[in-house]
Amino acid sequence: MSRSPSRNTGLSKSRRRFLQLSAALSSALVACRPSSPLPKEQQSFLGGPVSNYGTRSPLERARRTFRNSLSRENASSRTPLHELEGMITPASLHFERHHAGVPAIDSTTHELLIHGLVNRPMIFTMDELKRFPSHSQIHFVECSGNGGTHWRQVPDVSVQNLHGLTSCSEWTGVRLSVLLGQTGLQKGATWLVAEGADACKMARSIPMEKALDDVMVAYAQNGEALRPEQGYPIRLFVPGWEGNIHVKWLRRLKIVDQPYMTKDETSKYTDILADGKARQFSFMMDAKSLITRPSGGMTLSGPGYQEVTGIAWSGRGKITHVEISTDAGTTWQDAALQDPVLPIAHTRFRYGWNWTGESTVLQSRCTDETGYVQPTRHALIAARGLSYYHYNGIQSWAIHSDGSVHNVHL
Ligand SMILES: Nc1nc2c(c(=O)[nH]1)N[C@H]1C(S)=C(S)[C@@H](COP(=O)(O)O)O[C@H]1N2
Ligand SMILES: [Mo]
């Protein structure tokens, strides 16, 4: 049988996609300014001096936001997710959550004590910690309270204020298994309690199986020392688990034989179920995705090509796909995932969309490598009741015909 390239199925899928994209892009290009036939004479300026530590252009405005509802010390600030590109959050824009402010800790005198059910209790200075083999991992940290207003309310605010308690960095430090190899473990050493040096004595229990798997004592973030806000000089890093357990300003690890039921894991950070019982520990951050552009508070400039972009992540591993709906969840199409796609890390997705100018609703839905699919808000509430923590329902952005974008619950 002869195969003619001019037959209607003759165009390859990728060629058809290319032609569709070119057609869509040409509508976007109409809006661009053509260059004048002769380039304008370019001015050049004598530059400023070199500097000891870089700062961004004064024209750049991306910043963390915070509300005044908590005290000065018991506070949080949020990452401007809609302003970020790629998958790394600059340290200066990493969200913050402190229960007793940011303590000023002297790294030259700070020590980490490991004791309890060990053969050799030990104290490590920062210099000593840095003599062990170092290890780097790119991971997100997300507060389990992120998106919490979605359980009950429909605030018409930005993606930053709704979901900005998640950030993604390269973390460097020593694997906890290496340090526990030095102290040795006694029989019955099945849990540990990690304690911070801040005034609230933040403390959380962690099962030994996780501690020996991928937990690390981190001293660097994106290539430089941790920022004071992120736990300087050391924090515990517990990949994929809720933010609260990543104890900052870490000063003590007590090896024990059971969870200690600290105030931070009982009276706080506990999910109450519909029947009134509490879930015992909700460590894992489930898969979640967000369209960050366009998102709440933005206005589309007009009909035509729009790039829809955002991030997806899962505490359980890699994101395998993200689907986009541009018709309020009736139909779904695959978004492209942008490299690098790493386990337990923000993953950038992109989708080319031709907006007709009519009002509609945009949504994203992700799937992780365990097959877990991000639920709708209704499915989440049906399964969990009205919780406060661990909200990962599908985010809906209503686009009005005037181009304005709003947070809505379908
Ligand atoms: N010592 C200490 N560790 C802490 C906290 C704290 O208040 N004190 N806050 C926790 C909470 S609730 C979260 S969400 C993360 C936030 O980490 P970040 O401020 O680096 O983003 O730190 C956790 N570790
Ligand atoms: Mo948190």
Structure description:
The N and C termini lie far apart (51 Å). The protein contains six helices and 23 strands. 12% of the residues lie in helices and 29% in strands. The chain folds into two domains: 206 residues, Oxidoreductase, molybdopterin-binding domain (Sulfite Oxidase, Chain A, domain 2, Alpha-Beta Complex); 121 residues, Immunoglobulin-like. The N terminus is likely disordered. Bound molecules: the ligand Nc1nc2c(c(=O)[nH]1)N[C@H]1C(S)=C(S)[C@@H](COP(=O)(O)O)O[C@H]1N2 and molybdenum atom. The site of molybdenum atom (MO) has 6 residues, from loops.
Total beta strands? 23
Order of helices and strands: HEEEEHEHEHEEHEEEEEEEEEEEEEHEE
Strand content: 25-35%
Count up the domains. 2
Q: What is the terminal separation in angstroms?
A: 51 Å
CATH topology call of the largest domain = Sulfite Oxidase, Chain A, domain 2
Give me the secondary-structure category.
alpha+beta
Number of distinct helices: 6
Distinct small-molecule ligands in the complex: the ligand Nc1nc2c(c(=O)[nH]1)N[C@H]1C(S)=C(S)[C@@H](COP(=O)(O)O)O[C@H]1N2, molybdenum atom
CATH architecture of the largest domain: Alpha-Beta Complex
- How many whole angstroms does the radius of gyration measure? 24 Å
What's the main sheet like? 5 strands, mixed
Helix percent reads 10-25%
Shape: globular
Ranges with pLDDT <50 over ≥5 residues?
A: 1-9
What's the mean pLDDT score? 91
Strand order across the biggest sheet? 4-3-12-7-8
Name the CATH superfamily assignment of the largest domain. Answer: Oxidoreductase, molybdopterin-binding domain
CATH class of the largest domain: Alpha Beta
